[in-house]
């Protein structure tokens, strides 16, 4: 590989990816421990502390996975809200930013096997607008806070409009009653 090739964006991206994957690979979510390599991971898995942790997990796996899934989703959406509130962005970009946090919840301990699965879930539950494109999945954060505010404001406006309308009708009826009374007096 020439020197220039080594410095292309693609080459750099590939190196970062490889590094990231390596980082993810030997991580034990149960103990929140990052191992350096396969051997380290194997040693860790045989350690007493890991065995104890697994026993706890074995007694209640669903609850633990649910807990991790919830945490994963919360942090992921928080990151979306903080950094990409008003933009449509590639899911992989957000994911890579998210996993940059050393203490992030790892996806392999959640109910979602892949990022795609997670993205689809976000779309299904109305948490993000999601679209599949030839360049992969894109997501847009749905700002529930301002959406709720907007709906409330519209509702209040409608109520006000209704009240104005009712008042008008009442006045109209009063007028007609007055007219009728005048006619009766004649
Ligand atoms: Zn462990």
Descriptors:
Arc Repressor Mutant, subunit A; 3 domains; 3-stranded antiparallel beta sheet; two-stranded antiparallel sheet; 8 helices; binds zinc ion
Short description:
This protein has 186 residues and is mainly alpha-helical.
Structure commentary:
With 186 residues, the chain is mainly α. The chain has three domains: 59 residues, no CATH class; 81 residues, Arc Repressor Mutant, subunit A (Orthogonal Bundle); 38 residues. Helices cover 67% and strands 10% of the residues. The strands form two sheets. It has a three-stranded antiparallel sheet. The longest helix has 42 residues. It is elongated, with a radius of gyration of 29 Å. The model has no long low-confidence stretch (mean pLDDT 82). Zinc ion binds next to helix 4.
């Amino acid at each position: 590989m020439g020197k220039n090739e080594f410095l292309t964006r693609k080459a750099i991206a590939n190196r970062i990816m490889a590094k990231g994957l390596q980082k993810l690979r030997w991580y034990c979510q149960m103990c929140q421990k990052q191992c350096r390599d396969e051997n380290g991971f194997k040693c860790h898995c045989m350690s007493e502390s890991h065995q104890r942790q697994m026993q706890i997990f074995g007694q209640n796996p669903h609850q633990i996975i649910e807990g991790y899934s919830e945490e994963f989703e919360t942090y992921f959406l928080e990151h979306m809200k903080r950094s990409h509130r008003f933009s449509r962005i590639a899911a992989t970009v957000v994911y890579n930013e998210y996993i940059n946090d050393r203490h992030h919840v790892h996806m392999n301990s959640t109910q979602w096997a892949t990022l795609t699965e997670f993205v689809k879930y976000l779309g299904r539950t109305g948490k993000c607008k999601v679209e599949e494109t030839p360049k992969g999945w894109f997501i847009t954060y749905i700002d529930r806070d301002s959406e709720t505010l907007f709906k409330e404001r519209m509702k209040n406006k409608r109520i006000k409009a209704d009240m104005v309308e009712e008042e008008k009708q009442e006045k109209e009826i009063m007028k007609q009653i007055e007219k009728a009374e005048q006619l009766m007096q004649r």
